Amino acid sequence: MHNTAFPPSNPSLTARILQDPLNPFHCYRQLREQHPVYYSREFHSWFISRYEDVQNVINDPVLFSSEQSIRSRPKATRQNSNAARTLLWTDPPRHRQLRSLINLAFTPRTIANLAPRITEIVHAQLDQVTPYGEIDIVADLANPLPIIVIAELLGVPIQDQQQFKHWSDIIVSPARQEKKQAVIAMNNYFQSIVQQRRQQPEDDLISALLSAHIEGIYLTEAEILSFCRLLLVAGHETSTNLIGNALLTFAEHPHVFEELKDDLTLIPDAIEEVIRYRTPIQRLRRAATVDTELGGQMIKAGDIVSPILGSANRDEQRFVDAERFDLHRNPNRHIGFGHGIHFCIGSSLARLETRIALEVLLTRFTGMQRKPDSKLEHVASSFVYGVKSLPMTFEN
Q1: Alpha carbon of 11 to those of 27, 31, 101: distances in Å?
Q2: Alpha-carbon distance 295 to 343, whole Å?
Q3: pLDDT digits over 145-185, tens only?
Q4: End-to-end CA distance of the chain
Q5: Is the dihedral of CA 314, 345, 250, 273 positive or negative?
Q6: CA distance 254 to 110
Q7: Other residues' Cβ atoms within 10 Å of the Cβ of residue 383
Q8: Fold held by 80-290+329-395
Q9: What pTM value is reported for the model?
Q10: CA 193 to chain centre
Q11: Using CA atoms, how far apart are residues 84 and 219, in angstroms rounded to an integer?
Q12: Selection from 117, 146, 77, 57 nearest residue 339 by Cα
């Protein structure tokens, strides 16, 4: 432990986030108003809660490094030092090179071309529950949809989708040793697929990643494996929780269901407001590279800094009536998918899956509401916001 002179702190302020992860927003407001740069002993990091500060941190990889934030983790939780970092954990200039190469394969056209297949998957999932008048939004739709899409996009057997979900759930959980084993298992799995595609390319993303190059520079195998891991985990968790959070929020605001059903063109705006109101990825992780002052606090080199996207998106200095869900909010410059060089590379896929899921749900079903006896339980993660289950009733 370094010798940082931490500010006086009430441990219960951030401990309450752990105690009530479904409602961290009151604590966020206290942080913004009283301790905008606050050292959390529970999370072993500086919580950055105001919009402007959060944006400044995530936009400055020189002062606040993604790569060094991983190096500072306990040895047992780090990936193999010989393994390539994902886009999340690299800094410029290598981050820029990686992203440029990946963008050659993971193109807007690739994403847009998935729309018909996503629509088929959503209808197929809803067909299974239509006779019963009940659906668990998470188990029956939000979980399987992105897993199936990612499996098909990567070109891996669909029968492995439950294994994908298992790995993804472990990696976003606090279970350190299990997380390490899951990363190893994922690497081994994807390595065999990559080797197959080297011998026999197919029309899938892994084959495209293998062939992508800029001026003779190709992605290494380790970098391809790291992107497969990132797409599986981040792509699954973001889409699953965005869909679940949308339905949870609409159930709390029944008039939104009616407005959207009357005018499906409002769905994209509704999705953006859900991203702001219930941000799927609540916080990020950076490391200070040098001693620096922020919000009146001295942050030492090597200290972990946690920009809280979920707090920034409810900052009253940026959003009018920030605690209210407003379907017609304009402007809505949230940072729910990050900002700058680390803007979520899979955000367009998450938006597309969520838009199509909502369009089909609102077209096929009426009278959707949460089952009154259902209890909400937060997913097993301190940085993802979502529920494990969301039973709802509907009429055909």
Answers
A1: 12, 12, 44
A2: 24
A3: 999 999 899 988 878 877 887 888 888 777 778 888 988 99
A4: 59
A5: positive
A6: 35
A7: 19
A8: Cytochrome p450 (1.10.630)
A9: 0.92
A10: 25
A11: 10
A12: 57
